[in-house]
Amino acid sequence: MDELDWRWLRSFVFVAQADSMHAAAQRSGISQPTLSRHIKLLEANLGISLFERRGRGLTLSPQGQGLFERAVAVRDSVKTFEREALGLSEQQEGSVSVTMSGVFGIHFAPEWLSQLRIDEPHITIDLVIEDSAVNLLLREAEIAVRQFRPHQLELVTRLFGTTPLGLYASPQYVDQHGEPADMAELADFDLIGFDRETYWIEAAAAMGFAHTRDDFAIRCDASVVQVSMALAGLGIAAVPSWCATGLPLRRVLPEIVIPGPPLYLVAHPDLRRSPRVSRVWNHLAARLAALPLG
């Protein structure tokens, strides 16, 4: 057996967790040919088959199942080593990976990054746009802007407040259709809402109004797309107030405030000790603190 390449184990874990080469490539950022080559090299080196093909997907073979947890443990150990090493580094220059949701990526990040490039020209940013949480413990990102409280106790968090939402439409939509006089009339208008998510429905129910999925003329679980649809004049959407402030949207039923999720800044304490990560954290925290939050 030749010496194992750590990258082969990393690709093995990615593919095993994703159940297909395509999904693993999307999640990892590693091309499918590279993932496939790493798996073949690892199998050839070990002399066993790690996967069984099921249609278009892959499942772990019995041998692969036996080795998977050990491969995950190796992956976690390597990531811990990298994270702790970065925390010990005194280097001021280099890249920092920051993750945030689509709404923050479109409507917050450009202005923040413009100022960061002026204030910290020697630091580059890898911006990871994900509405689902990435794993900071595994260094999928180094700093996260999140709208929920992290569950991992190892992480450093800072709470900035909540992100309340209001009901907004484009001026063109309001000029053409008018606006509701109260919540009871809201159902007579074109509503933009979620497909599988039930946040708006639950928030309306808490205020005494019954809405169902079928009340939405347009449904999409990506909040950033909902904002774009409202801007395009397709209807009324629940938009975070901090986001709508800088957009050509008109608020309808301004007395209605929908409680929003909390806003956290999150990092691992090992990474916060890195000078460049700390500088990005402080810069990002100052911009988030300036948002009109609840």
TrEMBL record:
<dbReference type="GO" id="GO:0006351">
    <property type="term" value="P:DNA-templated transcription"/>
</dbReference>
<keyword id="KW-0238">DNA-binding</keyword>
<protein>
    <submittedName>
        <fullName>Transcriptional regulator lysR family protein</fullName>
    </submittedName>
</protein>
<dbReference type="GO" id="GO:0003700">
    <property type="term" value="F:DNA-binding transcription factor activity"/>
</dbReference>
<dbReference type="GO" id="GO:0043565">
    <property type="term" value="F:sequence-specific DNA binding"/>
</dbReference>
<comment type="similarity">
    <text>Belongs to the LysR transcriptional regulatory family.</text>
</comment>
<dbReference type="InterPro" id="IPR036390">
    <property type="entry name" value="WH_DNA-bd_sf"/>
</dbReference>
<dbReference type="InterPro" id="IPR058163">
    <property type="entry name" value="LysR-type_TF_proteobact-type"/>
</dbReference>
<dbReference type="Pfam" id="PF03466">
    <property type="entry name" value="LysR_substrate"/>
</dbReference>
<dbReference type="InterPro" id="IPR005119">
    <property type="entry name" value="LysR_subst-bd"/>
</dbReference>
<keyword id="KW-0804">Transcription</keyword>
<dbReference type="InterPro" id="IPR036388">
    <property type="entry name" value="WH-like_DNA-bd_sf"/>
</dbReference>
<dbReference type="Pfam" id="PF00126">
    <property type="entry name" value="HTH_1"/>
</dbReference>
<feature type="domain" description="HTH lysR-type">
    <location>
        <begin position="4"/>
        <end position="61"/>
    </location>
</feature>
<dbReference type="InterPro" id="IPR000847">
    <property type="entry name" value="LysR_HTH_N"/>
</dbReference>
<keyword id="KW-0805">Transcription regulation</keyword>
